[in-house]
Specification:
The protein is an alpha+beta fold. Strand 2 (34-37) and strand 3 form a beta hairpin. The chain contains five helices and eleven strands, in the order βαββαβααββββββαβ.
Length: 267
Amino acid sequence: MNYPHRLEKELHSEFLKQGRIDPITGELIEEGHTIVICAACKSAFFIESWEYLGEIHCNQAETLTDIPKPKKLFLEAKPLEYLPFLFKKGNQDVDNTIHSLSENAITGILVLIFMTLLTFLAILVGSLTSPLVALMFVIGLIGATAYYLNKKKSTTFLNRKINPNRATHIALDMKKQGITIKKKTDKRTFNFDDIKEINYFIEYVAHTGRGDYNMCALSLQFVSFKNKTKNRTKTTTYYTLLDVNEIPYWSEFLEQLPYSLKVLNIK
């Protein structure tokens, strides 16, 4: 169900300070705009963008009845609760390209070796019978091999897993007032005051041959200040793969961030 909100400076000043961007048009959301907020991922959309999407996002049609109010973070010293998905440092699009190139190169080498062996076998079969039998033998094996490679080929990022031994874990650290990044025994905390903005986007990935969109690739960027004068920044990028049923964990993570922190859905 749709719950549109017309933004007013007096009523929604804290929300307007976030500098939200409409994920469809890429335009800044400002006073006077009418928006809806996805109930699952908390992304804000112009009402026109929401209608363009068929009033569905995150595989559901619910929007928030109210614009979220600012929350104060609790300073309780409780154990870190890391998000239940494994992150990898880097850009998933670049990793996908490298993986595809490597996969195609390996496949090409294997096909070349196979065709060489096949040629020798065809010569052997032809010498024992006839050239026609050898030709039929070659065509049959090529067809069977093509079918096998097509069935086994890894075509998307969806078919790969992030190595748990090299993965990065991310959690909110209420005690340190920041976001803690852990890889093996190494820990680093981005204090909220040192973060200029957090950018993220969720891309739905279809299962090969099935067409259902029950998996997502989540890309995450931390833009942090490199020095106390805050005149230089550094961008650190991570990505992960999650099931659509795990999106609420990400939504909860976003909800707990302070509203003074700029968080943008950039796609």
